[in-house]
Design brief:
The protein is of the alpha+beta class. It contains 9 helices and 8 strands. Helix 3 (46-57) packs across helix 7 (141-149).
Length: 221
């Protein structure tokens, strides 16, 4: 809990300065405004959302996560977009969402990023987060991250397992293995150790990961 209690304006300013590097003045103003609106509708704060932005997109709402696809002989076939946007939308994540009466698809997300249609991307984020929260408030950064990562577990306690090597979808664990292995030392330092990886990603892992990344952003402010 103490790690999540830094709600200072300095912390938010550190994140917003970073996002400013990727956006024009009007885009940046829109990004801040819409984030505040979405956070309020989710019972959260702009700072909690920016902590998740940092982990998901590096505070760049136009970020794209792509991976190469190879054939059986190791030859590159194409590069596929796995996730994109402020909370890194995926095809499964946007399935069933509508904005302006039209279905949201990854094709539309990618086109919006290419044409820098930030207002539309934030509209998608709003409907995504409202659906993911399921009407529950998301007061802490790890609550927001749980809604983004595994919305079925929103409201769970710190020990709630979100993905594991022994779960129904071990690929969810391996695709996000960097979220495993977080721990708090006796001196209160956040560590990410190979020896602490237990094959499970918990809400507590999300909280520690976000707190560590916040400390790194604050050091660079």
């Amino acid at each position: 809990a103490p790690l999540e209690n830094d709600t200072s304006s300095e912390a938010l300013a550190a994140y917003t300065r970073k996002s400013q590097k990727f956006l024009g003045p009007d885009e940046h103003a829109l990004f801040l405004k819409r984030t505040a609106e979405i956070a309020a509708r989710c019972g959260s704060t702009s700072l909690s959302f920016f902590e998740v932005y940092e982990s998901e997109c590096g505070c760049n709402p136009f970020a794209v996560n792509a991976r190469p696809i190879f054939d059986t002989r190791g030859r590159l076939i194409r590069v596929d977009t796995v996730a994109a946007g402020p909370v890194q939308f995926t095809a499964a994540g946007v399935d069933g969402l509508t904005v302006g009466g039209e279905a949201v698809t990854m094709r539309k997300v990618k086109d919006a990023i290419r044409s820098r249609r930030l207002a539309w991307l934030m509209d998608v984020e709003q409907v995504y987060m409202l659906r993911a929260s399921g009407g529950q408030s998301l007061p802490k950064p790890c609550d927001v991250y749980t809604a983004v990562f595994m919305p079925a577990f929103v409201g769970g306690g710190p020990g709630t397992v979100l993905a594991s090597v022994n779960g129904i979808r071990p690929d969810f664990y391996y695709q996000n293995i960097g979220l495993d292995g977080w721990m708090l030392s006796e001196s209160g330092k956040i560590l990410n150790l190979q020896s602490a990886k237990d094959g499970k990603i918990t809400i507590n892992d999300l909280a520690l990961c976000l707190a560590a990344k916040k400390a790194a952003v604050m050091r660079l402010r």
